[in-house]
Amino acid sequence: MTMSRFSSILIANRGEIACRVIRSARALGLRTIAVYSEADHGAPHVALADEAVLIGAGPVGESYLRPEKIIEAARVSGAESIHPGYGFLSENAGFAEAVAAAGLIFIGPPVEAIRVMGDKAGAKRAMIAAGVPCVPGYEGLDQKDATFIAEAERIGFPVMVKASAGGGGRGMRLVEEPAELADALTRARAEALSAFGSGDLILEKAVRRPRHVEIQVFADAHGHVIHLGERDCSVQRRHQKVVEEAPSPVVSPELRSRMGRAAVEAARAVDYRGAGTVEFLLDDHGEFYFLEMNTRLQVEHPVTEMVTGLDLVAMQIAVAQGEPLPLDQDALRLDGHAIEVRLYAEDPAAGFLPVTGDIALWQPASGLGVRVDAGIVTGQTVSPFYDPMLAKVIAHGPTRDIARRRLVGALKETAVLGLSTNAEFLIDILERPDFVEGRATTAFIGENYPGGVKETEIDSLSLAMGAALKLTLESRKALAASTLPDECLIGFQSAAPLSSRLDVTLAGKLRRLSGLCAGKAWTIAEGGDWQHRIEVVRIEGHEAVLLAGGKRQTMHWSERHDGELLLAIGPRRFTLKPHRPWEDAAAAAGSGRVVAPMPGLVVSVLVEPGQTVEAGAPLAVLEAMKMQHTLKATARGTIAEVRIAKGQQLAAGALMVSIEEDAA
């Protein structure tokens, strides 16, 4: 790798990581260049950079995954170096090679290190040769199903099927029984080919209930390699990290030293430079096994920054310019504890289905020890083309429990309106006894949510608060159009006060409410079932302060042009929709209709007209937001119509399959 001083950086990425790199680069006095797709023309990273270059249409295959477009953007902007961020081309050896061939500095490891570690099979062979502990498995070149079946029998079930060329849970399947292996191989190959351009697989013995502990390593061009401690990333869903923390609650100084030495040896084995992460599985006996090495900055790097006081992006830039590391191993100090969660645009109650839509309001938390890394703004559209992560919320504290409690508070204060998020689910994780007591393993979510995540019903007090706010907003609109001189006259009547009627739909259910106003206070009722007195103390911007149930409550809100009121009270999110009777009839007519929940590509069609299906039977597989999603029948019946074909691109709401449901 050629190293020299440079004064400009092109960031070959988008979203929060592009913003993160831009901030550190600008703090160092470097000129920053962003790249963006047509879908990202209004994204924050575009506005934050000194310059931005359009590189193509929304789909990643037409923009962010096109090396030649990235390099051309660097040429026309005069960029001298390229930072790949994470994801996309960050671990693509061919891209790093093309960057160097274009006379640019690649802010990352040498091409050969990326190539070796980017192939799980090759990486595992290299680690075995270097004496790094590895999980028993098969990483051979023979990719025939018969070979995998024979090797799985040798290793012993359960086994993990993994994409050789990638990570992030894509192309990965847990196989418990021999009969499940053939289908797992087919599905994993298809997903791996789509995500990474390679369908090659490996097998590994499944380690039951391990912890996922990774070591951050850093190396310079002067032969220095150090580690910066560990991160515990055990809380995962579908092998994708949900919560990360540093340090691990179960790693002792002695174990940290052993794992750190193994990680350093892994980096030395491939002549590493820059930031990298060596991931291990840690069993309950304190034995650890090499999993993979990520040759880039990790999503969860902020927790390491918060406990070490280091800026890892600034260190990457310094190493790429040929500077030595700013500290040696003996100088490493870990201060306190940090925990990070990933805020996703997804619906946990619907099987964590990713969602798309417009962000009606984005208001991140702030406060002592709280950091929010985001790449979104109010009004931005969350498209189906990219990973559904919206932001990372991180909290630091002198102890693990203080960091945990600060993070819970930060999540309650962070408002995202306009689409579903996993915020309430994240809070629930952080408050589960297994997590509070530091006992979480990779089995945590499966063990704590065996039936999936249930949708939280909105209680009557929250509904009353939303109704009081809606009636107040409507009263203000009426005041603005009237000749009343002052807001204090809202609700004044010389005769007995009249009740305002409010018919709204909440979670698809009609709620007939009434409100009686006395100054700033409303008495909200639903027939004779309940009533609550709500005082609207003040409304400033999109934040309202209310007195309800004897407590002072803060509510975030945003109103759509069609009258829908989007609301957030702590982690709870709900929408009050004006009741429209004609929509009830339309919904009833839609029984048996299976529609695309988001824009996506039809990967496979699993049924045909005339076929009888049971409730829960798979109907089709849709690929969207970099993952495959199986659409299932909601009731027993006969397939009346199939409107889709393999390879078809669907819009959200498009009819896929119609089912003539059996009579109950």
Kindly summarize this structure in a few lines:
The chain has 664 residues and is of the alpha+beta class. It has five domains: 8-107, Rossmann fold (3-Layer(aba) Sandwich), CATH 3.40.50.20; 136-205, ATP-grasp fold, A domain (Dna Ligase, domain 1), CATH 3.30.1490; 211-448, D-amino Acid Aminotransferase, Chain A, domain 1, CATH 3.30.470; 460-581, Glycoprotein, Type 4 Pilin (2-Layer Sandwich), CATH 3.30.700; 590-661, RNA polymerase II/Efflux pump adaptor protein, barrel-sandwich hybrid domain (OB fold (Dihydrolipoamide Acetyltransferase, E2P), Beta Barrel). The strands form nine sheets. An eight-stranded antiparallel sheet has the order 14-13-10-11-12-15-22-20, sandwiched between helices. Strands 24-25-26-27-28-29-30-31 form an eight-stranded antiparallel beta barrel. The protein has a five-stranded parallel sheet with strand order 3-2-1-4-5.
